[in-house]
Task: inverse folding
């Protein structure tokens, strides 16, 4: 497998990353794997420790296991995969290396198709360019559950002191074992053909009723969203499909700010929709035909409603505690059972997909999967389903959302803000959140939910959630109310409460 070849790669190849010194204590799994700053926490030494711990974990369940190895388009991704292959082979785990940058949902599908013991995927998803990461998925194709990651962390702590992990940074070509390379793309694209009604998209495109712009954000979705459309006769105008390990200096996040180029292109091309996927292709970003970014929360509600209507599935949805209650409104509209509410982390939603308990599972951070698919976020599928829905309904997303609000009987306007807290404020906030709340921010609390963080639902059905991030050093504030202004006001009042030392 070729090494990374950018100028940035060459600079780091010549730097102190070869020292072999272990800065242990960094291998901690959050809501979606282990992430760290390249050459600080995420070093070759720590990668060898983490991979060895994963190998020992799977060997404890199967004496002859196999694991997929995959990577995104980030700096040093191929080198980390080579390093992992050497560690796995030395410990008796058969590595299967996915060819090229591979989206996380494709890895999940290939685990299930090949019946491997799981996968190690080198990606930091949507994080900035100076991060890298490692996701471990089990044999069920979903993100590893907490009991699994705790076992891996414990094994890593035992392995860390061993001298073997201070070996050269990465193996030379002659040190590589004979490993099998696989091509997961064709079978995944075939599966998309079973899940998405491409004929609906194609018919609208041929009538010039649907023009699509797709932004790969220099990530793994390039060659998947555009290729899936092309093989069914639909050409999308594609942006940022080439590799750039610096991601234009912003990171491959599907945020409003990062999709400014996509918004401008949608307006320029007079397109009906702009589609985007993040760095590892598991999250989606959507721009309406007027060039405005659409909240993932609203996309989830629209697609849930559309799937119930078009697929005839009479199952409810699942959402994280931080996700819009619009999904609950749609469930009531269609007289479906109550929506499942889970902690933040798609692994919990994935379990419900495995049980065939839900039509759609989603998180406000732009994660989605559907019935019969992988128990993992799939931004590629989300984009294609969204294109199908616009083609079928022949209306803009803003028009569809206004109709849905009328049908469910109220509006839902969620938002999220992040706070970087000094240690003393963080400690004080955690202590204060342990208390009981009957009133908060001048509002009567109807229900307190401690599924993940502290969520206070008020008598008018608006709510606020305060929780510490599982992937970044942040306190996140989530709010939802009947208007954007009310939601913003709630967020600002919650921020003032956090920093008010006299409260």
Result:
């Amino acid at each position: 497998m070729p090494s990374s070849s950018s100028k940035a790669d060459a600079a780091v190849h010549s730097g102190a990353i070869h020292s072999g010194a272990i800065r242990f204590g960094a291998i901690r799994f959050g809501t979606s794997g282990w992430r760290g700053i390249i050459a600080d926490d995420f070093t070759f030494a720590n990668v060898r420790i983490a991979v060895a711990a994963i190998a020992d974990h799977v060997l404890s369940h199967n004496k002859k296991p196999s694991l997929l190895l995959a990577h995104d388009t980030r700096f040093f991704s191929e080198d980390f995969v080579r390093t992992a292959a050497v560690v796995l082979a030395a410990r008796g785990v058969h590595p299967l290396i996915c060819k090229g940058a591979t989206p996380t949902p494709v890895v999940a599908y290939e685990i299930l198709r090949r019946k491997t013991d799981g996968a190690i995927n080198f990606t930091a998803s949507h994080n900035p360019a100076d991060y890298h990461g490692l996701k471990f998925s089990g044999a069920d194709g979903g993100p590893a559950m907490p009991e699994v990651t705790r076992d891996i962390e414990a094994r890593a702590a035992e392995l860390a002191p061993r001298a073997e992990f201070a070996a050269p940074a990465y193996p030379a070509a002659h040190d590589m074992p004979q490993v099998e390379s696989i091509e997961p793309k064709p079978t995944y694209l075939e599966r998309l053909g079973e899940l998405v009604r491409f004929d609906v998209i194609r018919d609208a495109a041929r009538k010039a009723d649907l023009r699509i712009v797709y932004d790969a954000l220099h990530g793994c979705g390039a060659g998947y969203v555009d290729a899936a459309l092309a093989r069914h006769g639909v050409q999308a105008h594609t942006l940022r499909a080439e590799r750039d390990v610096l991601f234009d200096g912003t990171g491959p996040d599907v945020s409003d700010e990062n999709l400014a180029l996509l918004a401008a292109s949608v307006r320029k091309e007079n397109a009906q929709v702009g589609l985007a996927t993040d760095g590892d292709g598991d999250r989606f970003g959507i721009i309406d035909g007027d060039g405005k970014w659409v909240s993932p929360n609203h996309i989830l509600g629209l697609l849930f409603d559309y799937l119930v209507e078009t697929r005839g599935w009479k199952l409810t949805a699942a959402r994280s505690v931080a996700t819009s209650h619009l999904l609950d409104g749609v469930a009531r509209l269609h007289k479906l059972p109550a929506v499942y509410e889970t902690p933040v982390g798609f692994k919990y939603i994935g379990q419900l997909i495995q049980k065939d308990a839900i039509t759609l599972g989603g998180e406000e951070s732009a994660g989605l999967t559907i019935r019969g698919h992988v128990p993992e976020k799939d931004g590629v599928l989300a984009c294609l389903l969204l294109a199908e829905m616009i083609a079928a309904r022949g209306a803009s997303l803003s028009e569809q959302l206004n109709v849905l609000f009328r049908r469910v009987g109220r509006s839902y306007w969620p938002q999220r803000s992040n706070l970087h807290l000094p240690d003393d404020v963080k400690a004080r906030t955690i202590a204060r959140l342990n208390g009981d709340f009957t009133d908060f921010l001048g509002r009567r609390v109807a229900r307190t939910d401690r599924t993940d963080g502290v969520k206070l639902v008020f008598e008018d059905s608006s709510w606020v959630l305060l929780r510490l991030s599982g992937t970044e050093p942040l306190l996140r504030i989530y709010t939802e109310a009947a208007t954007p202004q009310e939601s913003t006001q709630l967020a600002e009042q919650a921020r003032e409460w956090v920093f008010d030392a006299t409260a």
